[in-house]
Amino acid sequence: QPTRLANAGCFSPFPFELQTVVFCHLTSFQDVFSFAATCHQLQEVWLEGVTTIYRHVAKVSITCEPHARILLADQGGPATKVGIRSAKNVHQMLRNQSMVYKAITQFESDIVSKVRTDGLRAEEYYGPGIDGHPPYLTRTERRRFIRSYYQLWGLLNLDNLQQRQSRLHSVSLKQLLYLCEMSWLPNGMGPGEDVDSQSGDMPLIWVVAMHEGYGDFLVMWDHWQNSLKEVVCGRRTKEPPYKMEMHWELWEDSPNEDEKANGHLQLQSHPVTGT
User: Is the predicted pLDDT of residue 237 greater than 90, yes or no?
Assistant: First the structure.
């Protein structure tokens, strides 16, 4: 109860550093704003200590924060190697997060609720007694969506074609496939710019989406991760008889942030605010 404590005047005798520590133990920026609004002294602590406070609170309140932070830099905010410098930066991060959450709500309504799992034992991926994909993103799917949304949004903020190409070259094949699907979000759900994702030779794996996904969306679902691993790691030999060889290190070498949320798949029916 940060407001009750502050109204009681409990923190006025304490030094700036200790009051900053109290801010750092809050678990959401809504609590930070409420706490700071209780008196002029705490407002000053928040504004002066925003870099330190942000670093601690963001860890538990902004999902995929490193990617959200890159987007802020792409939008003209401070470089990622520089800490958050102002409350204005924090508010922009939260506005971006709010837009992502709105996109998730619409995506769950328009896409996720129609995902198919024909021929698959859905309960192996989504829990005992579940005979299909739940009508919402699981925790791991949610992280894939959020991370990819931030990455695509950041790319769209880069006006220089070489910068876009350089960033794409630094992304693993696995994440490129996630980004490819993200670029197919319906109008009004994407980060604000049309993407011509249909041009060029696209992978043919989406031919099965009508049975194991919905529309153009397939690789982000939990029940398709094993198949995606084979797509990412499979390589045909350069010499006859051109056998398929699996290079599992291609999967292991790419950041698997999906597992940072939990060591196992977990259903999540409400917005997740932590990492």
Answer: no
Q: What is the mean pLDDT of residues 151-162?
A: 91
244 with 235: CB under 8 angstroms? Answer: yes
Q: Is the pLDDT of residue 52 over 60?
A: yes
**pTM here?**
0.81
Average pLDDT over residues 69-82: 95
Residue 236's beta-bridge partner residues? 244
